[in-house]
Design a protein that fits this description.
5% strand; citrate synthase activity (chains A, B, C, D); EC 2.3.3.16 (chains A, B, C, D); mainly alpha; Cytochrome p450-Terp, domain 2; transferase (chains A, B, C, D); 3-stranded antiparallel sheet; Citrate_synth-like_sm_a-sub (chains A, B, C, D); Citrate_synthase (chains A, B, C, D); homotetramer
């Protein structure tokens, strides 16, 4: 049947005595020698990251792991309250909020930057002035088409998102401040000329730029935000077991429910 | 209103200029300084792991990250095929298979070992003979009640699961071969006397024992298998984009569908 | 290849000109002639329900469709807030709360009754006295083993759950007040002798008894609660679009968050 | 606190003696008197459908309930295989495939038709010639912008989708063949002039047109496909318990896995 049916994969394989992951012997070459973040990068990119790439990548995962009581964390805790027998269900419920609005910025920003770079003819800019010109063109075009510029502005961090300068510094230290991060910085410099006010470069956006500079697939950047968030959600479920708030959230809504006809 | 309503959390907090995670300044103290696996442990346990604990913990995550085309990986790829616009949905679908049968062994084994240790009166055994006696009692009781002993046996690795000796060695190197791992090894020695045949100690089981020795909550051990699997599922989705198999899986089923009445 | 590979199903089939569902021509024999609830019963049971069975079945679905702002409805609305691009994700998040605690009673009650009837030797009781004796034995055994009796008690309806007498009446009208419902009623009569106080027979429980009397598989009764709840969740998502509360729920939690270290 | 906090809803409410759903007494006015499909329409639209609207609506749900071994049905069965303890997880996994590709056509078609009607100035066309002109403009514009016309074509039903004429006839019988269905029919007549070949009007598309003519919110049409599919998925899970195919699907993939490096 193998002539007819073939399901190729480069991820994993095993026989009676060995388990191969990414072409390496899982037990002999990976366990205890490769970090979890390093393996996650490797699994998606199909190549092992350098130590510098790993440091930037893990800094991004750490930056995105948790934001306290987000709607997704609350949804996960409410689901755990309703179905404590299914940890996987509570985690999944929390991840399902990782869509366009709350976790999408990382991917949207990476894509916005990648598209602007792809649209640029000739060699990449050699200096900040060149990046500023590219940024100005991209922001002006987005403004003209009434599109939001992803990565600009934050509801809480109105002046500066503390994650942004730190991730830029880490990328610089590792020699990984590439075109996406440079363009993102340039957008931070030039957007007031177009938008008429200065907005901070937010953490989700700088993470998207950094992931794109690591050569990770732009269409899956949201996936890394989801991986990071999985750790945060596990933290919320562990805390929900020790100090539950799900029932209080439910009762708060229930006690303040106002029945009002809604004719649709 | 804060007198009436209080939602306490020790996970995260933020104001205009700072983001606090686990009581640390996210940007200044965590990003670039804490690994992702280390943070995941910290989020769940509420305490920062030592370097040795981190190494064992990440070895477990690496061991559990992927097993090739498992039913959950196939389900995630089929979901991505059907709804490529929702990476979070495909990931969630893959995690939802992380239940009793395929990802549950890690948690079941940790709980089985923890219960056996809790049921043991007096100080923990001082030597292998003592652990063997405890193991014999636990296996005999389970056998009497017709309960499976989680962590024994593997469909592919019939003689030895290559992950087991390696994780035991890593735990030993880090001084973290604790009571759960010792009892698990003892079960490996004594079970043939009770079951009449020798089965291998499987990788999912040794991971559960190691996580329990790290002091992580037994009721959430499945959660770590899910975190590890999230990285593997991302790898599958990335590969599905490059070398899709979902459509072939679907067509293979569709072409070989046999319509047969089923009266229920 | 069909000799080797065969995936049998009695559910659906199609060719260029026909779509067959449950052995009937979908377009010619089902659309416009079979109700949706009737089809759902048929799909699960593998047989077409009678009009009386359909009426009882739909009464159960109507009884279980919505309970206002349950934790699952809130989780679905929060997920829709976070990822409005994925209606399927918000619905799935809401359904994932359909586990042991909030939607499980229907299935647990059906199973409790089925087990008690299966454990009973000889012919089914001929009169209420016989059912009372069977109920007394089941309640006494559960009490002895410190097991809860599913279907007893309700946080809001402390005296009587209004759904219970109505569903009993409908089943009686349709000649479908079978052994599970009779035993459930008997439990309502005898439990005070054992528990020392009178609790109402709740709506989720009577629905489980009615579904079991319809011959539906006890291990899937939760699935009907989930089907019913899918309609309710759609109603919540539609209302969330018209009169959103998700953001207010989130902000209520966020504004009243108290950061407190939690050492785990 | 109710001055500050208010969570309005018109869906459900309850006190010790009553449960109100949509402003009606659930036990006294809905159970046994309202069908499940009727209630689902009412929950979303905020108004009770007429008997004719209910018949068309349930015909749509019946048409969309199942398509045999779709990728989503296979994903649900594989998830049930992996986590048989969580029916809600298997259902949710199946629904998560209800995205842009496999279940999205219903919603996309309804929106395409609604946008074309909204873009049309003046009164709605009085005759087929008028609808043909409107259809020609819409198809030509979509073609110019290289957008697909949702609802055209089907991989299996290459000449005619048997559901389409039947749903049109049912809508006509109930006096509910409105603008969306008329425009959809017109697209069926005129598209060959623009596309150069004749494609069938598919069942998912005609269902979207019919739901839009019922006045249901275009942004939630996918939700009705998901409700319908929930019944189909329950049927698959029930059959999976009686005649499992999940393990065979998994083993078929596993046995034909070809390990091939994939450099990403």
């Amino acid at each position: 049947m193998s002539d007819e049916l073939r399901f190729p994969t480069g991820i994993g394989d095993s026989d009676a005595d060995h388990i191969t992951v990414l072409g390496k012997d899982l037990a002999g070459e990976l366990m205890g020698r490769v970090g979890f973040g390093e393996l996650a990068f490797w699994l998606v990119a199909g190549r092992r990251p350098t130590p510098g790439e790993t440091r930037v990548f893990e800094a991004v995962l750490v930056a995105l792991a948790d934001h306290g009581f987000t709607p997704t964390a609350i949804a996960a805790r409410l689901t755990y309250l309703s179905a404590p027998d299914s940890v996987q269900g509570a985690l999944a419920a929390g991840l399902l909020g990782g869509g366009s609005r709350f976790l999408g910025v990382t991917e949207d920003c990476g894509r916005f930057l990648a598209d602007a770079i792809a649209a640029h003819d000739g060699p990449p800019p050699a200096d900040d002035a060149g990046w500023d010109a590219l940024a100005l063109a991209a922001v002006t075009a987005a403004r003209r088409e009434r599109r939001l510029i992803p990565g600009l502005g934050h509801p809480v961090h109105k002046v500066e998102d503390p994650r942004t300068p730190v991730l830029l510094r880490i990328a610089e230290e590792e020699g990984l401040r590439g075109p996406h991060l440079r363009l993102f910085e340039a957008i931070g410099r030039v957007h007031p000329q177009v938008l008429g006010r200065k907005l901070p470069l937010n953490g989700a956006g700088v993470c998207g730029a950094a992931l794109a500079d690591l050569g990770l697939p732009v269409d899956l950047l949201r996936g890394f935000a989801l991986l990071a968030r999985t750790a945060g959600l596990l933290g919320h479920l562990a805390e929900e077991r020790r100090r539950p708030i799900g029932m209080d959230v439910y009762l708060t809504v229930d006690r303040n429910t106002a029945y009002e006809p809604d004719e649709g």
